[in-house]
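Async update (no meeting this week)

Hi team, since we skipped the sync, here's where things stand on the single-chain job. The sequence we agreed to prioritize is pasted below, unchanged from the tracker. I ran it this morning and attached the output directly underneath so nobody has to dig for it. Comments welcome in thread, and please keep replies under the output.
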Amino acid sequence: MKLLAGAPGWTTTADVIVIGSGVAGLTTALQIRASGLSVLLVTKAKIDEGSTKWAQGGIAAALGPGDTPEQHKKDTLIAGADLCDSQAVEVLVSEGPEAVRKLIARGAVFDKSETGEIALTREGGHLRNRILHAGGDATGAEISRALLAAVRSDTGIEVIENALALDVLKSATGRVCGVTLHVIGAGSKDGVGRGLARAVVIATGGLGQVYSQTTNPSVSTGDGVALALRAGAAIADVEFIQFHPTVLWRDAAAGGQQPLISEAVRGEGAFLVNDKGERFMVGKHPQADLAPRDVVAKAIFTQMKESHSPHVWLDATGIHDFVTRFPTIYASCIENGIDPTKQLIPVAPASHYASGGVKVDLHGRTTIDGLYACGETACTGAHGANRLASNSLLEGLVFGTRIAADIASGLPAQQEPIADASPAFLLRADVKLPLQLGMSQGAGVMRSDSSLTETAALLERLSHHTSDAPGLDTWEVSNLYLLAVAIVRSALAREESRGSHWRSDHLETRPEWRKRVIQHLDASGKWSTSFEEVK
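Output:
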């Protein structure tokens, strides 16, 4: 199966193609360059416009006195609700501190305490202060800045901006040997072309735009997961969509990317209240307002449902240094007519992070030879049913480094692609809004058999709205459609509530569901579901 697109009109070649310019893609590219291989870095917008720069919270690593990788692992496993791959978590937490040190060596500057040590804070689900921040609430922007500076100074990395990767190219042996891509607007190439490489790494970030309200930027349309699906790669855990509990509520008509109110605000003492002024998280969980995100999101959703209100409130008026500690959040609030130092902040859950994605092993290898995946695009199993706060940037660093090491251990010679005879697929651009609204209503924070079945029926109807006009908007909505189908299929299959997957008709967590839901799409477009016991 492939996207409908024109024939490639140009060709470029590198040893490795990396798709995506967030922390995962940039780290992978730099580490690959350390082994002397050439890299083609493809990014959908400008190189600095991905999700990484929006990360407010920070990056987690066991660097503080008395903290250990084992304690970090324990917190990660608890948040993951018995669905984490313990080996992947072990890799994440044990290799994380060195990965952060390497990031600092590349120029990333983190906030310091009065004694000159790196200031470590706490976020939901962590029992120790182990979160590094930069610029208060601009950690992602600082990490992106440092990595981009290193990439821009490396002449062995060719960058193509404003380019959407369409589909992988395969050789006669079935190995991935490149991608087709379309350069939009002012890119360095013109129209559809092809990049040939000895390996391809997908690091395209999240899929938040499959919902009507999200913290993700507009480019987060799950292009990498959809590309891998069409290539025949397995995907896993896609039912586990983390809804960030505290996103600034503006009005019911506000769609797309919404301002995030970082968990770190609650880490500094802010707390949630309902319309009556009651602190509803007290007594709900031992960590109250700093409980894991799925717990907080569900509690907020319940309060909203009971009060028939579109939001709850976050009281941050007790944080005396709010303006300097959270300058980005303060600016967002002021822009929307709220002074968080004096007023309560209206907040509601919005789609934030996909714990699942393209199924990979401990070296980032997908189930397709020559194709790797990293970062939010991938499912390493480290997050289980619910990602622990600030583990995402760490995962990009750790597994990007592992992918580079695997690639450096040896690649075959460049292989020639063969023609893709599978059927082409493209939906109309106007499918996007009803798809997003349907997913938010039927496959959002709370789900049920009836809501998911209705959403599946909607998606089936939308699948008939085909287009013969290839372009960015039709390609994106076609990718979103595939992801929506995968999420709904997986959510219907998992008849329990676990982590960030909440079924109102199956509220219990059942031990027999301690397994992954795997989705696969064959060349003709036929779906299949399988299951895998969690290690």
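Quick observations from my side:
The radius of gyration is 22 Å.
The chain is about 30% helix and 20% strand.
Reply here if anything looks off.
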